[in-house]
Structure formats: structure tokens, C-alpha cells
Automatic annotation (TrEMBL):
PANTHER family per record: BSL7504 PROTEIN
Record-linked InterPro entries: WH-like_DNA-bd_sf, WH_DNA-bd_dom, WH_DNA-bd_sf
Protein name: Winged helix DNA-binding domain-containing protein
Ranges where the Winged helix DNA-binding domain occurs: 16-95
One protein family per Pfam: HTH_34
Amino acid sequence: MIEAFQNINKVFESKVRLGIMAVLMVNEDVDFNTLKELLSLTDGNLASHTRALEELGYVVCQKTFVGRKPKTSFQATSEGKKAFKAHIEALENFLKST
């Protein structure tokens, strides 16, 4: 049973990071405010978790202007998608083994 925990990614133990990646897996990109509303997070909470995922290379952040307003969007990287899929598979394997 210990082997089932081998591929569980500690990064995704946080429900916020798990939620961010889940949203980004089914959407090409998502803007900051949409993520904040979908996951019921504060600005600071979302910013710190997306920064951590960005530092790991799991997401990329794009900052643009729409008119005069700044817009921040996030997109999952291929590395992030691979890590997330491996994490989900590890959870499924763990559940099957119990």
C-alpha cells in the first residue's frame, strides 16, 4: 500500500492548488477574477498559490491590458498537465488498492 503513495504529488495536497489545476486542465486559460470566483478565494490567497505553481513550472502567468485595465491570465504548462495527471492517476491507484 505504501507504493500507492509514491506518485502522489505533495504540491497538490493543497485543495486550492488542486482546484487551480483542475480548472486549468479543462480551460485553455483562465483570468484571475474568474479563478478567484470559481474557487471562492481572496486575491492574496490566489496570488500566493498561483505564484507557487508558477515557480514549479506548472502554470504560466500572462499579464496584458484590456483598454486601460490590467488582465492577468493563467495557463497550465505541459509539465503541469503531466504532473497533475500523474497525481490523479496515483490517487485512483491508491483508491483501487484499498
